[in-house]
Design goal:
The chain has 1108 residues and is mainly beta. It contains nine helices and 61 strands. It is elongated and about 160 Å long.
Length: 1108
Amino acid sequence: GAEANPGSESHLPGGAFEPDDLQGEAVVNASSLPNRAFYISVCDTGLVSRSSRFVIAARLRVDAPLLLDGQPYAGTVRALETARFRVSAGAHATRMQVVASPEGGDVALLLSPMSRMAGTGSADEPGWYDRAVWRSDVPGANTITARATDEGWCAGCDYAVGVVGKTAANFTLLVTVDRAYTLRDGEPQTAQLARYAKGDEARAAYFSYSVDEAVGFTVVVTVLMGNPSVYMSTSNSRPSGEDYTWRPPVGSSFSASGIRRIHVPPSDPDFCSGCTYFLGVVAYGNCSVAVTAWLDTTEALRLRDGLALKDTAPAGVYKYYTFSMAEAGGELRVSARPELGGARVALFANAGDSPPSEEEHHWPTGAAGAARAGDQGTAILIRPADRHYCAPCTYTVAVRAERATTFTVVATTEGGSSTLLLGLPSLETIPMGATAFYQTPVDPEGGPVTVSALPAHGAVHVTMSTLVSRPSDEFNTAAFDARSGRPARYRVPEATLAEWCRAPARASGVCALYLGVRSLTTDGGDVVLAVSQGGVGMAQALLPGIPVAAAAGDGELLHFALTVGPEHADVSVSVSVAPPAGAWRAAPPPAEDKGGHEGADAADTGADADTDAGGEPKPPSGEACGFPELSVWVSRDKVPEVDKDAQWAAVAEEASAGVGVVYIDKDDRRACTECTYHVTVRARCAANLTVVASSPRGHTLLAEGMTTGHDVREGEYEYFSAFLDRDRPEHVLITVEPCLGNPDLFVSDVTPYPGLPPLNYTFASRQTARPERILIQREALESMEGDRFYVGVLGETRAKFTIRTEAAESAGGDDPFAVAASQDASAVPSLDRLTARSVAVSWDPLPAELLAGEPPRGVTYRLYAAREETEGGDLAVLYTACGLAASGDRVAEIRVSAEEAAEPPARGYRPLSATVEGLRPGTVYLANVAAMVDGRDKPYIYRQVSFTTLEGGAGRGWAIAAMVLATLLACTLCTVGALIHRRRRQLRDGSLLADDGAVDMQSFVASPLTGGGLPRGGEDDDGEGGVVPLVAPAMPASLPPAPPVAAEADPAPTAEAEDPLPDNPFAVAAGQAAEDDDGPVAQAAIMESDDEDNDSPGASDPLSANKS
């Protein structure tokens, strides 16, 4: 009060303190010191090696502190009490925004001119709440935006601000009057962009952040609701799409709600030390965001109850966070989840401000606080009964990743609820017998809302409400169940949402949707939760390794967005058709108000209106039109609306077993890093589906019954994980079906990276020319440790494949189609009439036992062929559904009606056949047959056969054959002429002996130089090659007859072979390639004379059999 530079030895009574828990205050009685200036000193303690950053505020009235424009104020409030504040608006002010962000607990926010509050008595009286002009009462952060055009606005007046404690809470209060928000280092700041009227006018919120040191910094915008664009600049205080310096990775601002991130290193050419950076968040609809900025040297970031924070960490480096627990206390759950599943993270916590580490920490210790560590995340549960528990106090949390990765960390109190970001899936763990609570802000006018639950393990019961923050079976607006292998979705139409979001659920244009998720299994559950809003143009985010359940009507377009960073190499997007009975539920339209039913009751009365008679949920809207076909389009430049917009494309159809996969190779010139891929799925027929993006650097979560496609390079691995369900009595079947190349399958319950070398796996399957299948029997599952097992797929060659896990009641698998072709020796196509350009393929129809059932089933047989090596150098695969779709050419299709297929054959099955034409000479080919049975989703695939076409083409073959025949005829004529000349000379010379006997002009057989082999059954063959008889011309009539002489001829020798030839000499053993790479060799019989003058070398030269 008197010293201009107060210190530890000179200050007013009570006027000294050391901030604790990152904040503190001193209260000085100034009633005896009127009309005096006060001086304040802040001294650095020197306990850390870097300079301090702080915010200081002074107020002259304890009952209603004065809030300063743009300066955050940290305070506390008890349950059911109101903390009062005061703020001044200048005479020219046109806008004021007040934000109350709880760091623990739950609050409501009030704002009104002070003149309206006069005479209302205590701030805790109901009149104070009722007479406020502006109110916000939603979970989490509350925002009020007052404008000069609003009724109740008072220019140049003081305003009263009230923070109502719905529970005991710590909070941060920030008021901005016609200016940007000021960001504090490491502390999240919330803002809301409310839509006050219809129209296309953009709304924006602006933030400022000062960087005083020459170090890099990061700005993270967590989108709670809406679809904003984010821009940053140092030269423009109101950056926009027309004037900015930085923005998040290209495309992310046009994708789903989620997290936008900007990092500016000191090496950036536009980096400026000692400057102020301005951030603009621009949106056209209702939008709510939380913005956090921090320097690379910031020691700890602050966590807010239920709000996810995105961060990055180098390998082995600790990142620290703090959380302030309110006086009310309760359980605290802290979780960290990497974006790349394989980048496992460790999580530690301490009570107090001492940084924890692996060597020194309070949690995890014992069963109560044990961290549940895994590739999909880690969680710590801090309970009041724990030895180090404290409230109110600050907890310090450390996260360490085993390798560089991006992750999200979130802290949730017992009385709070985690925030699910719109359009962003989240893998959540629900403890046994517990209920976890979530909240999502939605726009009552933003379109339909869809809630999806995809259990990776166990079963869950989901309750929803907009009126109670902790919905239960007794108090809810709607509910549904989901279990492993059967994801469920609940769709709330826009009209129903407007009914749900009527007052008092709606405040400041925002409605909170609350979820309660309860585990129905004894060992808890793991479920992927997602809440999305909007129709066409609103994309749902894809996180690598996390599957998403979706549904589409006939002709409907679904949009997704995948943001990739430098840590992502090759990327694949897999879309698979879920079983037709997959859960789909639609909320009914709002019922008419008939004197009592409204809100929750109205919805409950018709919640099952969209289920069939048996209670099974029906697929989405759209009439049945056969097997659903899904077109998948991917582009990095824009959202593809038609196929021509796509840079990558795939189709999930019946022939590919309902799986379509887009592979994006890192070496593809169209690929990118630090960007967003836009994915569009169009359905032909209503369908339930699952979508998953994966990267080879992380684990992909395998959900029961879901099929996904992936790509692995030669000698590298793709990793997966799946949860163990100890409540299930079935075995677990893991199937890898190659689409190209040759992958191997490894499984382990110990190491997250099973494979070779060393021999670090529990089970392995290394097949050739057939799918990889591992059946883990129930006894083995019970002996496994931990809560999940891991899968590694090795590329023996570069390979594309699909992988699927499913429950199997029998040790041999439950689906006869999955095993019949590998065990049935008759499921082998036969080859016939092989030439250089064509081959005939025949096969037996399906046995009647595979077609049993009602109604009778017809079959469509499809013949496929492909070169053994594709144009890209990969090995073709024709023994799986995806292999037929990826590398096979459909060359023929034969339809067998249900009546024909069901009729028992009288003399055995009559083989079906078709001809493959247009082949290349001297090339190795594969052929196979797929049988599509009516009413079945999976094809019956025969066993692949291999063959090599003959050398030379068809045109060249005929030409060579003609030249050979002409040569043979010329030689014959020459021989005949020579013999006649010899006879005449002998007659003239008298040297012809009486016993010479007539010369027997023999026929001979020529080994064909082109074309097939011996005609079947000894009959003549009019095709290429074959037996060619040559007949000698008649002798001159003047020759005297010679006396008959007994002549003997050797029988024609038969072709020698190691094994007798079957009826079809070209048949190849099932599942094996032909041993002779040159293809089948034509066999020929050579007739030779026993004349002692014959010096023929034998069958290798058929022309030498002639006598000269």
